[in-house]
Amino acid sequence: MADLKDRPIGATATLGKTGYPAIRSVTGGELEIVTGSTQPGFNPLDLLLASLAACMSMSARIAARELGLAHSFEGVGVAVSGEKAADAPSRFIGFTVEFDFQGALDLEQQQAIAHRAEEICTVSNSLAVRPTLVIGNA
Asked: Are 27 and 76 part of one and the same domain?
């Protein structure tokens, strides 16, 4: 993955009296948030799951290269779902990450790539611990 020292990271969300939040990355990416159950688009929970899926897919490609399997790695799809807690506070209590590898990789190679991807992925590493959350005013 890209060296974060070379890429600014961060995001802002703005919300008016009505409507939904609009988010913007420090590099200029923009995304509208939705909350209705039938609205197409991303809600905050989708974004968390999408971040894990994207990170794991990129990490799988790196892992394949590290493990000497790049010649057999044609691509990967990663599906992520989360299980929400039944009690308060509102949170995910677990994630399921499913890899769909393309290429000439046997099951053992696929598992090795998936496990190495988890070790590489900044998002999975952050979710594995409880990171410090500092709250302040701008």
From this structure: no
Summarised one tens digit per residue, pLDDT across range 22-54 is 999 999 999 989 887 888 889 999 999 999 999
Q: Which of 16-25, 28-37, 70-79 has the highest mean pLDDT?
A: 70-79
Whole-angstrom distance, CA of residue 43 vs CA of residue 46: 5
Angle in degrees, 0-180, between the axes of helices 44-66 and 107-120, rounded to the nearest 10: 120
Q: Are strands 22-25 and 92-103 parallel, antiparallel or unpaired?
A: unpaired
Q: Which domain holds residue 76?
A: 43-138
In this structure, the answer to whether residues 2 and 33 fall within a common structural domain is: yes
Q: Hunting for tokens 């979710």 — which residue is that?
A: 127
Write down the pTM of the prediction: 0.89
By the 8 A CB rule, do 43 and 33 touch?
A: yes
* β-bridge mates for residue 32, sequence order: 22
Domain count, the chain: 2
Q: In which residue are the tokens 């053992």 written? A: 108
